[in-house]
C-alpha cells in the first residue's frame, strides 16, 4: 500500500510534527508493508527524523534568477502550474493521502496562496489520481479570507474521510456548506503519543514549579496593522506574571512550541533580567526553541502547574495531567479545556490582565488535586476514542485487499 502524508511538517512547530509522528506510529503498526511519502515544509528534517521519503510541499524552488523574476511578473502562475504537474507525477499510483491532525483548515497567519492554496492543490491532484483523501482529527476555522475559505472548503469536500478534534471545527465546516453527516469527532491525535519516561522524584524542599509556555503572538492575520502593539502588550503582561511567580517563591520553567517563539522568550528574559533579583535566578529555567513534542512533554513533566498559549502546549500539559491555564488565541483552546471540564481557566491572549491571571492561578492552585482527578478521567476517555478511530481507519481505508 502507498500512503502519502501532507502537512506543515519540519517547519519548527512541535505540535505539527507530533501529529505526523502519532499517525506514523499507527500506520506502521497496522500496515508495516506500506510505502510512505511525506509532502511537507522541510523534507530534510522529516526524512532524517522519521526515516521516510519526503518532498517539498511546493515542489522544487526556481534556481535561476531570470526564472524567479518571470514567476513574480506572472503572479507565480508558472510555479503553481509546475507544482500541479509535479504533484500528479508524485501521487500517481498512491492509494491514500492523509492530512493528520493540526489546525490545517484555518488561515492563521496565512494568505490565500499560502497553505490554503497548497492544501487545495494537493487534494485536487489526489482526486485526479484517484487517491483517497482523509482529514484525521483536524482543526477547522476560523477562515477569515474569502478566497482562503473557498480553497479550504473545496479541499475538505474532496475527502472520503473527515474527523475533527473539537465540536467547533465540525460545526464550522457545516456552516460553510460541508456535508458533515458522515464525519466524525475524535480527539487530537497527539494524545495518542507515548508518555515520556518518569524523571527523578523531586526533593521535598524544591517547592512547586510552574511551566509558562511562551508564544510570539502578533494577531491572527499576517501583516496585522497593530501587530507590534499586540506583541508588546503580551510580552509586558506575561513578563509581569512570570516575575510575580518568582517573587512568590515558585520555580518557573519557560518553554516554547515553535522555533519562532525564541524571539518572544528572549524578549521576556531581557525584561526579567531587570526585575528578578539575582538570588532568584536559580529558580528560573529557560528552554531552547524547537524540539519535538517528546522534548516538550519531558519538560512539562517536571512542572506542577502550567500556563500556556499554543494549542499543542495545552495538549501536552493536559495529557500529562497538569492543572493548566489557557491563554488561547483561538476557539480551539477553549473547546479543549471545555472537554476536560476546565473552561473556567481560559482567558484570551490579547484580553487577560495580570491581576486577574494571578487570581486565576491561585484558584487553580487551591483546587489542583480535584483538577488532576478530572483531567485523568478525560484522558482515559480520549484514549478509548482514539482507539475507536484507529479501528475505523483500519476498516475503511487501510485494510489489505483480498488475495
TrEMBL record:
Domain Polysaccharide pyruvyl transferase: residue ranges: 13-329
Keywords annotated in UniProt: Plasmid, Transferase
Keyword Amino-acid biosynthesis found: no
GO molecular function list: transferase activity
Pfam family, one: PS_pyruv_trans
InterPro entries: Polysacch_pyruvyl_Trfase (IPR007345)
Superkingdom of the organism of origin: Bacteria
Protein name per the record: Polysaccharide pyruvyl transferase family protein
